[in-house]
Amino acid sequence: MSRIIYSGSPNNPRWSTDQVIFTMTQYQTGGLAPRQQINFGAASAAAILGPDLCMPGVQGNNVPTAVGAPWDAQLPAGPAETFTTDGNNNWVRAHLINGRWGGPGNTWQNLTPLTATGNANHATVEGYIDAYLAACRQFETSGQGQQPVWYGVYYCVQASQDPWSDANTTADTNLYSYAPAFIKISWRAVTITKPVNVSPQAAAANIDNYPMAGVVNFPQGFQLPQLPAVMNGAATLPAAGNVAGGAVLGALPANFPVAQANGFDGWIEVHQD
To answer: 230 CB contacts (<8 Å, ≥6 apart)?
Structure first.
């Protein structure tokens, strides 16, 4: 969706046409979470998402396809059932970075087992991020003048290494010992400096090389989306604070920005239900 200066001088710029340049960059994972003597399910994943994701036809799918024990096969000396045969809960292979945003579905490094309710609650947060990306695109095309930066979001999901199972029943034979107690979702508004005097094709190929910064204040005319009511403190979406005891989480990216009081930056936990 991005317009950049591809020729001309600062006093006589020529802007590119509206086209896909910046979508997602710096996707990274934190490996697999150690639970019950095996590495199963993502520890963390992060990506920088850009306003181009709101352009028609840009978002993909990447349905979850990763398999293996204990998802759909039994572990030696493990649970008697799998996540696909559990009669008490409806489980999904939940993306940490949504497949629509380019998060892969063929590796457990971006998937973790969540109940259907937990995954639906994560989708509420993702909808909020989609609305923010739409605001980024609207600002880019709103007639405020050509912008020197892209507005986007740095999005990270960390999985609890603590399992969902009750502490008194956590054991290799308990299926819920292999599922995270919760995931923590963090988001930060960022700007990406647009290049000058390069072609749109070169800009897309080198998007990782352009300076990124957190957003202290949004410019006049930038319309932030309204925070969904459910994200203000429902039982399955507590607004602040880790669980008692300080659960161990997968790592944040080293360059993840500090939260700013800009009306958007935040984090939330989604607990299994």
So the answer is: 121, 124, 237
